[in-house]
Amino acid sequence: xxxxxxxxxxxxxxxxxxxxxxxxxxxxxxxxxxxxxxxxxxxxxxxxxxxxxxxxxxxxxxxxxxxxxxxxxxxxxxxxxxxxxxxxxxxxxxxxxxxxxxxxxxxxxxxxxxxxxxxxxxxxxxxxxxxxxxxxxxxxxxxxxxxxxxxxxxxxxxxxxxxxxxxxxxxxxxxxxxxxxxxxxxxxxxxxxxxxxxxxxxxxxxxxxxxxxxxxxxxxxxxxxxxxxxxxxxxxxxxxxxxxxxxxxxxxxxxxxxxxxxxxxxxxxxxxxx
Length: 274
Ligand SMILES: [Fe+2]
Prior knowledge:
It is built from 10 helices and 14 strands. It has helices at residues 47-54, 69-72, 75-82, 93-98, 104-110, 175-185, 204-227, 232-239, 245-250, 257-273; strands at 2-9, 12-19, 29-34, 37-39, 61-63, 85-88, 118-120, 125-127, 130-136, 145-149, 154-158, 169-170, 192-195, 255-256. It has a 7-stranded mixed sheet with strand order 1-2-3-4-5-6-7. It has a 5-stranded mixed sheet with strand order 8-9-10-11-13, covered by helices on one side. Strands 12-14 form a two-stranded antiparallel ribbon. Strand 9 and strand 10 form a beta hairpin. Helix 6 runs antiparallel to helix 7. The chain is globular and about 60 Å long. It starts with a strand and ends with a helix. Residues 66, 68, 140, 159 line the site of fe (ii) ion (FE2).
C-alpha cells in the first residue's frame, strides 16, 4: 500500500511518501518543494510517483539533508530528468556516487539506495527570493545538514528533530553530536520546522528546544548512573521508558534504545577524559 499525500504550508509544498508491500507503510518521509528547490527526495520505491508528482516542473537544485535512503532515493533520477544540481555535505559524495548497501528492513520500506553526483553546497544557496543557509548538524549521521531560510523563518531539518522524546537510536548515531547540533541550530531564528518525517509548520523552535532538553536530561542521567558504577546493561534496564523490542526486531538490531544509552556512556567517558 502506498502513501502519497500532498500538504501545503504557505509557499512550501510537502509530499508525504511511504511504501508498504503488505499493509500501510511503517513510516513516511517528506519531500519538500519550494520554487525551483527540492529538499530531500523520498524513497526509491516511490520514484515513479515522485516523477509524476513533479511532472515537468523547472527544478534548479536538490538539497539533501543526509544520505539515508529514505531522503536521497530519488535525487539522481530527479537530477537527470530536470537537469538539476544535487547538493549535499561533502561527506556524502562518495556514498552517493557509488551507492551504498541497505539493510533488509530499509530495502523493504525504501528500496535500494539511489545514486547521484553530489556537489558541495556554498555558504548560501540562492533560488530567486529564497536564500538557504546550510548548517552542518552531525549526530544522526555524520553528513547531516539542515537548511535555514532566514527571511521566512523556515528550517528544513531532515532527521534532526523527529520527535520531542526519541526512544531509539541507530547504531551509528551520536548523542553528544546531536546535542551540539541542536544547540547550534537553536541560535538562529525560525518558526516552521520542516522535519523529514513530521512537519511542524509553526512553533518548530519550541519543539527542537524540547528535544534538546530531553537529550540533555537523558545524557545527564546516564552519566550519573555510569559514575555510580552501573554497567551499561544495568543502565539500559533502569532507563528504558518504552519497549523497543519491535523496532530491534524489525531493524535486526540496527536501531534500539541500547544504542542511545551506549552512545551516551561513550560520550560521557570521553567528556571525563578532557
Ligand atoms: Fe535518517
